[in-house]
Amino acid sequence: MTSLDTRPLIASHPRPSRHPAALPSAAPYRPDDFDIAIVGLGYVGLPTALAYHHAGARVLGVEISPARIEAIRAGHVDLLPSDLVRLEETEGDPMFTVTSDAALLRRANAVIVCVPTPVDHHLVPDLTILQSACADVVANAVPGQIIMLTSTSYVGCTEDLLLTPLAERGLIAGENISVAFSPERIDPGNGSIEHEFVPRVVGGATPSCELRAAAVLSRYTASVHRVDSLAAAEMTKLLENTFRAVNIALANEVADICRELGVPVTTVIDAAATKPYGFMPFLPGPGVGGHCIPCDPHYLLWQLKERRVAAPMITQAMNEIAARPARVVERAAHVLSDAGMGVAGTRVLIVGVSYKADVADLRESPALEIIEGLERRGAVVGYLDPLCPQARLSDGRIVETVRDPSGFDPALVIVHTRHHELDLTWIDERHLVLDASYRELAVPRRFTL
Ligand SMILES: NC(=O)c1ccc[n+]([C@@H]2O[C@H](COP(=O)([O-])OP(=O)(O)OC[C@H]3O[C@@H](n4cnc5c(N)ncnc54)[C@H](O)[C@@H]3O)[C@@H](O)[C@H]2O)c1
């Protein structure tokens, strides 16, 4: 890996200018030009950059965060073991460059944007990061490039943030530049299917953009499915994650029904999943986290609100999902109460605080809300998570993982996320266990939500 950090990190990201920059002259490409530039080296961008590098491409990674660049250089990043090996392979390799300097994008043949698209506290899409990244990309675009957006966003986003501003600079899609949208489908922490074998969907601004984008993706991925518009590709991603959200909400509801009826929900789901068609298993849980399910459907709902279009099923699913952590707190209080204990003053240990197994990602993790909800009721709360040594709560407090769970001596253990490396052999009959992960923990005194 080489570094081109020759100027202050912050200075490489000016606010977008209202005055379009002059159109750069036709690509004066040099031999050290980059095949692919990835903007944003996070959970999506870094594995993508490594996949391209592994496929023999000369890769430029543009990353705004100095801390992230440091972490990548030091190898202290949350990646699958196979991607950590690939990261090691970039060491000292001129084919892999990481920089904060967006001006280097001018030297890339293809530019792929992978920056976050979160929602704010009111669940309204926060587009500021994406707008800023796209403004950098547009300001540094050169004729002949292909620019591909992969961040999840609303339908029409690629047109608003790339196509139109590029045209204002005289860069016309299908004529002297290519523009496409290809939703990212990576599943951090899931090593069962390699990134390269997850098919990519792509739509271009014009048929020639679509073809060129498909060729860029085919450089590292085995299968590309082309759709005939940017909007269809954008909507595909929104459908995928809305589908997940609705089905997770349904699985949660079925879990509640099963508990009421005294039927083990996982037995029922496993049995239904033997049907070879018409059923896809989703597991209930303590809520959803990460950067997709809690956020993406809100991009669709937000867009529909402007058009006064209701989407009651999606809205209901998102409400149910959002209420799930509070339900865990309620259920914890019931379990304690049935055992003759109150919440106030009782020691509760949350096991696994990241939003899913085998990743260190705490974004939107239900565990944080559960910790805060229990603390509001006076519980003494600790957590155990070897992947997340620290966690920041919504009031800014930093809390640290318990090292010795037996020493913490919890009356109640809430199993939130089960990392493969988590040792739970210390749980014995002294502990009440609320298994919010529904992973059929074989421990005494286990309760589900
Ligand atoms: N994380 C997932 O599991 C996942 C899966 C599929 C799709 N997605 C989508 O992919 C997109 C990226 O998500 P992520 O999880 O990788 O986010 P992330 O927060 O892990 O990484 C984004 C990176 O972009 C950097 N960045 C922000 N602004 C920048 C700029 N102007 N220039 C250069 N770098 C910049 C950030 O510092 C960060 O390192 C989102 O739209 C998300 O919805 C995420």
UniProtKB/TrEMBL annotation:
InterPro entries to which the protein is assigned, alphabetical: 6-PGluconate_DH-like_C_sf, NAD(P)-bd_dom_sf, UDP-Glc/GDP-Man, UDP-Glc/GDP-Man_DH_C, UDP-Glc/GDP-Man_DH_C_sf, UDP-Glc/GDP-Man_DH_dimer, UDP-Glc/GDP-Man_DH_N, UDP_ManNAc/GlcNAc_DH
Region (Disordered): 1-24
GO annotation (BP), single: polysaccharide biosynthetic process
Keywords: NAD, Oxidoreductase
SMART domains per the UniProt record, alphabetical: UDPG_MGDP_dh_C (SM00984)
One Pfam family in the UniProt entry: UDPG_MGDP_dh_N
SUPFAM superfamilies: 6-phosphogluconate dehydrogenase C-terminal domain-like, NAD(P)-binding Rossmann-fold domains, UDP-glucose/GDP-mannose dehydrogenase C-terminal domain
Domain of life: Bacteria
Boundaries of every UDP-glucose/GDP-mannose dehydrogenase C-terminal domain copy: 349-436
GO molecular function: NAD binding; oxidoreductase activity, acting on the CH-CH group of donors, NAD or NADP as acceptor; oxidoreductase activity, acting on the CH-OH group of donors, NAD or NADP as acceptor
Homology family: Belongs to the UDP-glucose/GDP-mannose dehydrogenase family.
Protein name: Nucleotide sugar dehydrogenase
Species this chain originates from: Protaetiibacter larvae
